[in-house]
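Researcher: Quick sanity check before group meeting.
Model: Go ahead. Protein one:
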Amino acid sequence: MQAAAVVVGRLGLSSTPLLATRRLTRMADTLSRPSSDLAKFREVYKKAKHVVVLTGAGVSAESGVPTFRGDGGLWRTWRAQDLASPSAFARDPSLVWEFYHYRRELMATKHPNPAHLAIAEAEQRLTAEGRRLVVITQNIDELHKKAGSKEVLELHGSLFRTECTKCQEIRPNTDSPICASLAGKGAPDPNAVNARIPESELPRCQKCSGLLRPNVVWFGEGLDNNVLQKAGK
């Protein structure tokens, strides 16, 4: 079975939630050593029955999506441990939701760029030829899906899904605002200690009224086993 792996954008491999991504990257390395030889790439790509495209924050940067550690990156303004960890959510779900609501509203204004569109078009062509292209992304902005990609594995979840902390139900959510108490909220103050929104007014589960959280992978959490199993195939 012939396969090819394409890496697009920067893959951040330094934090705990990305340990499994290292395995995926090593898997890609075993298929073919990284190369900038375009002629060689075309040769391998032409023969490949299965193509995996690995994308990181860099692929969405051209769409105006802030990266995490580059110039103007999110973690240069806010501290990850205060906003993107289970302990942060347990300590102050209001502040965490203010941050993620800001990101949801920002992402909703962004559009796929030529890289997203090219990947989606490549998938369509390969599918018509009886071949397969799968996108494995660290991004949570859903821009690959907006571009038309059908086979997308989101390693770190999505800003536009919620997960109930009580019944664990996961469902799509594109509401704007996600709840009335967050309407009109902008970026949270980097020095804020509390966002001061009562927990009862934060997003709630339609099924059991439990507190919702963003369906994203936070620092200190493992990746979704179902997604990893699909990626391994």
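Researcher: Fine. The other one?
Model: Protein two, sequence then structure:
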Amino acid sequence: MKEKKYLSAAIALAIMAAGSSVFAADVVDFGDEEVIVTATRTEKKDVDVPAGTEIVTADKIKEMGVRSAMDVLKQLNGIQYDCIGNANSNMGTMTNDVIIRGYKDGTLILINGTPMEYRGKYDLGSIDARNIERIEVIKGNGSTLYGSDAIGGVVNIILKKNTQENTVTVGFGNREGYNYGVNVGSGNWRVGYYKSMLGKSFDQCTPNINKDAKNAELRYYTRDLSKENFNISGSLNDKWDIYYNFSENMGYYDRYITATLPGYTGKAKVGDLYQTRRYDTTNHNFQAVFHDKDWKVSIFNNLNFIESRGVTNKLNYAGTPYHTREKNVSYGADVQKKWYLNNSTNLIAGISGQREIYNAYITTDTKKNIISSKNSSFGRNVWAAFTQIEHQFDAKNTATFGARETWTTGAYRDQNYNNFSMSGSWLHKMNEENNLYLSIAQSFKMPTYSEMNKNTDFAIPNPDLKPAKGINYEIGWKQNHGSHTWKAALFHIDVEDNITASWDTKKKYYQYTNVDFRNTGIELSCKIDGGDKWSYNYGITWQHPQSKSDNAKKLQMRNQWENVYGRLQLDGGIGYKYKKFKTNLNFTYMCSRYQSQSGPNEAVKPYLLSNWNFIYTPDEHSEFNLNIENVLNRRDRTSNSSSDYFCAPTTFMLNYTYKF
């Protein structure tokens, strides 16, 4: 009860104090210069931010023709795509990840500056690209400003608010795909609804030999992948903004017998269904935002529901039922104020309070027989106080120092944490177009309750997981010269007690453990605006992410460094405009990849992700859009775990949009 009172008091204080997290309206006008808010919690020109950054505007997202926030992020330099389900769909708790600079589970996802995660996971495939005003990506540690989960970086998705254009969209594609949506509003309020479906089955995973199926080869197929999104945004007045988003993702994953091996003794035939699963993920995100001069506050509430059900072994004609259910809740407030101490010094300080709850429920089979007979509920309060001071020594040199104290109360088993993290950076303006920067930052990540406790039939609890702690070093250069924008960064990451899942292929279970992580790399990117017709972008990232082995199956490698994820990434894009026609082609190539195994990690083939989009606008009211995913129809492995999951074959969608 005391903890609840403390949190209620903090929220009440936040409301009285009044302020805001980042909302689309908070971005000030710096002319034609790109502006970023997330990196320092205040508006700055991108070239003046002492960190590796990426900015994607609504216009660029439209030219790309992508469907979701995940489709945007997977094409950015320095970001690796880790996908389990086709079309960015989830398989229950197995969600798709954004890996920044080789660090998995260390990317903090924000919506309008407030967290949208549930127990360290997120559903970026549910955020419709048509609702996005801009995406800001901060590479490297953001823990001092944003807390736990930001070791690898921060992604802030800023949504559209008071756009005046009303639209109706319908579309169809191959593989029984279709989508439709509407976005309408008046004055300060907007309402949007979108639904998409990818119906036809296609194989998604490499076949594997399963002893339960009596030496039969099994292969996964996906079907009926649907996504539904409803959102409301608006302003009560010039100080209050409201946002609500509902999303629901559903899909079926079937496993068929595709071959039999010598010695097969089963009665099933090739083509028989062995296993089926239905996965449902539902999200509710609410924000109330207040902004007034130098005060900012955000109040948020996130609810997530995940349910998985089906039959594991249909060859056993009684069937082996499978059913899991969980609910994740987080609510709280974030307050900050900015002071101008003098003409060369400013200070930002703030507090935040958040309640986290994880519930796992009693589950039953189709005949209401109990599978799991115990409800589990875990919760904790997460508190923080943070500050950042910036001092400009002269016209060329600026230093920034930040600090954050994070602590928890009311945790299960009194397993509370506290951490003090610091960061510092130096920006040197060589001239009006060129800046150099140096950054050093400490990081911190708390284990989630689902990592410490059993949340599936294949998990082994580890209630004594330790927090991950690390430090990031970065030196970089940015240049805005005419139509060219150049960025380069050299970075090094060291993380002690990184939290990672370890899979035992023989016993068929996984457990989260603490292992060390490190990565050193270099990034280089360039954007070119060629004028009225042409535009280009390209980038390269070379890195060497490694993790220490702790698996009992790797005794010969215990406490030795293993390669993980990808080492070399190339990305690029080209755009062309002519009168009423636009086209944009983008690709991302990742090689020198490694997958986690119960034995030594193995090298895997590169992936090449491609997207080609065409837009034709015959008049001011109509627009046709043709988007093609996986242009070369490659069967590329998009997962980084011991199981092989592949991207969908070539998929196209033709949309018509009417504007009014």
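Researcher: One line on it for the slide.
Model: Residues 1-28 have pLDDT under 50 and may be disordered.
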